[in-house]
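User: Please fill in residues for this 220-position structure.
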């Protein structure tokens, strides 16, 4: 799935911010790594200590010694400054953007009909991504089940904690998977769209191995 430029910048910022913070607290970070049982434990300890997402903790653990030199540290600080100027939000302002607390599960037509109805009432379009007017909720869900059974579609619910925050739609069309992300109004402007996009890459690749994926619409 192609990453948007905004998504690339956000991901890179997560990494550079984590490296910058780790360099400032390098002695504490080194102590944690030495005391960690294995790589997974070290990554979790770093993430907890620095308050950075998983991708940032992985970057810190994989840091090369050359990155500790003054010139490399200045380069990283300059990149972080540039990325901050490019982005319209930060992890502090949109804490869900890291995706650490977000999970995806298969859409359940019985349990998730209300959330899908909320989306359809807002957009007025069918769930298949064709742009056609939506039928009844029962018709839309029945058609989606047929496409999923035929391995032509996958619908996923994005959730954090006990809240369902949105829906990820993947529809096979002309040899590509069209991916659309819809976030419920009460959960917008928090970074869930970015998080759902990141999480959905691996999920869609598992459902449609080897098929190109294209994001057809930004998260709402």
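Assistant: Residues filled in for all 220 positions:
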């Amino acid at each position: 799935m192609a990453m948007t430029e905004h998504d690339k910048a956000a991901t890179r910022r997560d990494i550079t911010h984590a490296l910058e913070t780790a360099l400032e607290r390098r002695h504490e970070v080194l102590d944690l790594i030495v005391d960690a049982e294995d790589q997974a434990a070290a990554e979790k300890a770093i993430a907890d200590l620095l308050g950075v997402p998983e991708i940032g903790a992985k970057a810190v653990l994989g840091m090369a010694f050359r990155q500790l030199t003054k010139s490399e540290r200045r380069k990283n600080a300059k990149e972080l400054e540039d990325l901050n100027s490019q982005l319209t939000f930060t992890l502090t302002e949109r804490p869900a953007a890291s995706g650490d607390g977000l999970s995806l599960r298969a859409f359940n037509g019985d349990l998730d009909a209300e959330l899908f109805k909320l989306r359809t009432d807002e957009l007025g379009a069918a769930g298949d991504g064709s742009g056609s007017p939506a039928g009844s909720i029962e018709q839309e869900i029945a058609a989606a089940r047929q496409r999923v059974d035929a391995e032509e579609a996958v619908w996923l619910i994005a959730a954090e904690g006990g809240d369902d925050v949105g829906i990820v739609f993947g529809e096979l069309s002309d040899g590509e998977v069209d991916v659309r992300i819809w976030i419920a109004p009460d959960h917008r402007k928090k970074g869930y769209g970015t998080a759902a996009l990141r999480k959905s890459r691996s999920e869609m690749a598992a459902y449609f191995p080897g098929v190109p994926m294209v994001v057809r619409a930004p998260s709402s």
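For context: The helical segments are 5-24, 26-35, 39-50, 54-61, 70-86, 113-123, 137-149, 192-207.
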